[in-house]
Task: inverse folding
């Protein structure tokens, strides 16, 4: 294996896959007259606001890594981006984080009202499962079974034991108890466990769903899942570092907001330098997992490198 | 066929199925430690608040009507009740209908806060699809295909072209335009179209999912779906009548609220007497559809009768 296996030309690979994802996303949402125009507009406003498309690209790359057809994974890839987008819309609501900027634009509730933002989030989440069940259209029993398994993995990751559960833990950190006192801040283990659910679960599910749709056997699926768990942790650590170091303009959201809200972050707990070393450790563990399953040359390795070196 | 075919003993049938549904619902939600305790409590608070369980019972009865095993349909039945419950939780939010009582208890956002109510709704919706994908556990290709199709039907009905779309139309009725003026009230056709999405779609999907899991062929599935569409319309008309006539105590929610909010209702458009006649017409059309498919003796007929004669 060469030093740049899976990483050479990664920027171009990411650009191409992102264009494919954006193209597919532009066609997956229901339109008027079947969908009321204000709801259709609201869902599209948030979905087409840009974003890195990390999760759908990871889904496609995982399907490719295990030797599958990435187009079989495209509906799951899009569905996971719908779920990620809904989670941002609901997270930004006044009752939650009360954020007014996201991906460089006013948040949905600012432009469409709070009620429509709640409904658009609900609609995006529900369409995700409609999309995964519907497409790719097939009567092939093997693909049908893969689709059902991918839905199971994605729904579990997005739900109360996964992403929504992580958001509930996050909410608990800033909610005073009956005595009016905030709970003690999360320690390192608590922070890791919260992020494993809040951001990690859906990133893992993106990779796992891609591997499942690509026809991975148990061993490769497990390796992809392990690598993605470390990708997810690294992604969050880097996110926290960028939140401290970054500027609002390049992040597309309010910089320093987590720290200002008193939310626990990796830099706050460990400092910037050690946080960066932790992200590098994640990458090494992920690469070892991929290598152990014969996937060291896949694009997943390049995606991991990109996650820890990205600037926004 | 006798005059009481499918209707004799319907009260006892409903009681039994409701007990089965309540028993299954008590076991479907994730628990601590996998799910954070406050989120688990919030989801359970709303799910176990009672309710008629019309949708899950209709799902089970449809599976039975087409000669299937109702236990194959139980996960879908429970999933649809999770979806119905999440829709009530989000509908009751301050930004939406701002309701403080539901099923005879304070609404979830009153007891757990707005942010947790949003998350609990998101969690209930997501668990619905996790449940349908996961259970009944099987590697039987026929059942796997039925499960995937049921998910497709339920997700489409619950989403932006179905229930969420209906809620968006409803929201539009009470949202002033840029000029500060409310849109003109819905006429009869607009009201029917709104309810076909807002309440009708999920009731239809409950019946269709039950028929699919019960192994219905295309003809019987279509007949069950047609009957359920009329059941759904009748259910809404009766709901509107009860909202005018009822007392808050027996309804478990604030009576007369829709009329007070200036929301269009069947009694407001057509008067009580004609509204009741419209509900009876629905029932007759539904019975004709069932009879045409050889399902006149099924419990679906009794459920239809109960829908139009219920007092709460």
Result:
């Amino acid at each position: 294996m060469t030093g740049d296996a899976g990483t050479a030309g990664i920027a171009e690979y990411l650009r191409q896959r992102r264009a494919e994802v954006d193209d597919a996303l532009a066609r997956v949402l229901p339109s008027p007259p079947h969908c009321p125009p204000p709801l259709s507009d609201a869902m599209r406003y948030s979905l087409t606001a840009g974003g890195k498309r990390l999760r759908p690209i990871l889904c496609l790359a995982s399907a490719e890594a295990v030797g599958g057809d990435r187009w079989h994974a495209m509906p799951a890839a899009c569905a996971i981006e719908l779920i990620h987008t809904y989670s941002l819309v609901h997270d930004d609501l006044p009752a939650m984080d009360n954020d007014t900027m996201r991906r460089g634009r006013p948040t949905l509730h600012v432009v469409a009202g709070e009620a429509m933002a709640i409904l658009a989030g609900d609609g995006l989440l529900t369409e995700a499962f409609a999309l995964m069940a519907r497409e790719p259209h097939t009567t092939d029993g093997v693909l049908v079974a893969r689709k059902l398994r991918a839905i199971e993995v994605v729904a579990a990751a997005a739900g109360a034991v996964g992403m929504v559960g992580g958001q509930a833990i996050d909410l608990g950190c800033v909610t005073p108890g009956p005595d009016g006192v905030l709970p003690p801040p999360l320690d390192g283990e608590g922070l890791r466990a919260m992020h494993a659910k809040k951001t990690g679960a859906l990133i893992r599910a993106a990779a796992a769903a891609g591997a499942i749709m690509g026809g991975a056997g148990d061993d490769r699926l497990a390796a992809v899942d392990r690598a993605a768990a470390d990708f997810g942790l690294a992604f969050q650590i880097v996110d926290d570092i960028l939140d401290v170091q970054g500027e609002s303009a390049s992040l597309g959201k309010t910089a320093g907001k987590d720290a200002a809200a008193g939310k626990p972050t990796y830099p706050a707990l460990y400092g910037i330098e050690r946080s960066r070393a932790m992200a590098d450790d994640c990458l090494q563990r992920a690469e070892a997992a991929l290598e152990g399953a014969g996937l060291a040359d896949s694009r997943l390795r390049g995606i991991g490198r990109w996650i820890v070196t990205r600037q926004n």
Chain A has a mean pLDDT of 92.
